[in-house]
Design brief:
globular; 11-stranded mixed β-sheet; binds magnesium ion; 5-stranded parallel β-sheet; binds threonylcarbamoyladenylate
Length: 352
């Protein structure tokens, strides 16, 4: 026990859900408590979205700035119309194609959603996840559930229950351990309030995916040129994020040159007495023989990389690494989301 709350940790098999546990979790939600649950993207820290006092507990548990609005999770498409005051045809088409799934839509909100949850904005972020435990919890509690990623604000999002325990033990009532999350990066956030849909945070549903349905979609300019002083439309994107304790250096360029430079810098850091760690891929790990490295996946199967990225950052921290040397990936498809997170966690970017 820490911070005064006893956190109950329970395991639930998503393929064989124990509904007694879901009922207990739903009771906690309905009493204004906090339940951490898995989704297909990352773990979420959930509260009744219609209870301001409960939502407030989320901000406190995470240490999250009050001006960063939360995502509201629903289990049925109908609920969208109770929360959003306008649902344009384009949003309906995206819902039809990508829900349930890793897509969050920004829509004008109804009054039922308070300023607490939307940080005073006239829009709300709404998502219908596909994870069976998440859906069971939302259905059983009969409430829309507000849930940001279940990490301490600023640290990498949790992709397994042990990460949540690390960050939120003693700060939530229950943690549902449903195994590793599938995608490993937070949902795509797309603003549907303008004429052309605009991605505010890249994720598992890609720009290409949205264009295939609607014919058009853009990125918030701050995603394309993060080095310039463009204010992101999504409040959460302006904060330092996804940061392990170690410094992250991101290497961009031709992969062989990148590996050469990483090897060189690793040796320099080691000479200085610093503990370096390399985030490698199936294609490059052999090039770092004898050096501390974690292979996070296959460059030709980006889902293997997205699902292991945050875990890799946390694992290096557990190893007491001072500097993480990370390879860039191609920014196409899911690569855009991977590079967005790596870019935000990086203290330095080196182009070779
Ligand atoms: O995959 C996910 O989306 C996970 C799981 C738990 O569902 N949740 C998640 O929540 O990543 P969070 O709170 O960590 O990220 C929500 C993002 C933030 O960047 C926030 O600023 C943005 O969505 N957001 C929320 N409401 C918004 C709004 N009305 N307008 C613009 N951005 C908004
Ligand atoms: Mg987050």
């Amino acid at each position: 026990m820490e911070n005064g709350i006893i956190t109950k940790i329970v395991k639930v098999d998503p393929e064989n859900i124990d509904y007694n546990i879901i009922k207990e979790a739903a009771d906690i939600i309905n009493r204004g408590g906090l339940v951490v649950f898995p989704t297909e993207t990352v773990y979420g820290i959930g509260a009744d979205a219609l209870n301001d006092a409960a939502v407030d507990k989320i901000f406190k548990a995470k240490g999250r700035p009050q001006d960063n609005p939360l995502i509201v999770h629903i289990a049925e498409l109908d609920e969208l119309y109770c929360l959003a005051s306008e649902v344009p045809k384009k949003a309906e088409l995206l819902a039809e194609r990508f829900w349930p799934g890793p897509l969050t839509m920004i829509l004008y909100k109804r009054k039922i959603l308070s300023d607490k949850i939307t940080a005073g904005l006239n829009t709300a972020a709404i998502r219908l996840p596909v994870n069976k435990i998440a859906l069971a919890l939302i259905r059983e509690s009969k409430k829309p559930i507000a849930a940001p990623s279940a990490n301490t604000s600023g640290s990498p999002s949790p992709t397994e229950a042990s990460h949540v325990i690390e960050d939120l033990m003693g700060k939530v009532d229950m943690i549902i351990d449903g195994g590793s999350t599938y995608i490993g990066l937070e949902s795509t956030v797309v603003d549907m309030t303008g004429d052309i849909p605009m991605i505010l945070r890249p994720g598992g549903v890609t720009l290409e995916d949205i264009i295939s349905v609607l014919g058009e979609c853009t990125y918030d300019p701050s995603i394309i040129k993060s080095e310039e002083a463009i204010i992101p439309k999504s409040p959460g994107q302006k904060y330092r994020h996804y940061s392990p304790k170690a410094k992250v250096i991101l290497y961009k360029g031709h992969i062989e040159k990148v590996a050469e430079k990483i090897n060189e810098d690793y040796d320099k850091l080691t000479l200085k007495g610093l503990k370096a760690g390399i985030m490698s891929t199936v294609q490059t790990r052999e090039l770092y023989k004898g050096k501390v490295n974690i292979c996070i996946g296959d460059r030709t199967k980006l889902l293997t990389i997205s699902s292991n990225l945050f875990k890799g950052l946390r694992d290096f921290d557990h190893m007491g690494i001072d500097v993480i040397l990370a390879e860039a990936v191609d920014e196409k498809g899911l690569g855009k989301a991977i590079m967005n997170r790596l870019g935000k966690s990086a203290g330095e970017i080196i182009e070779v």
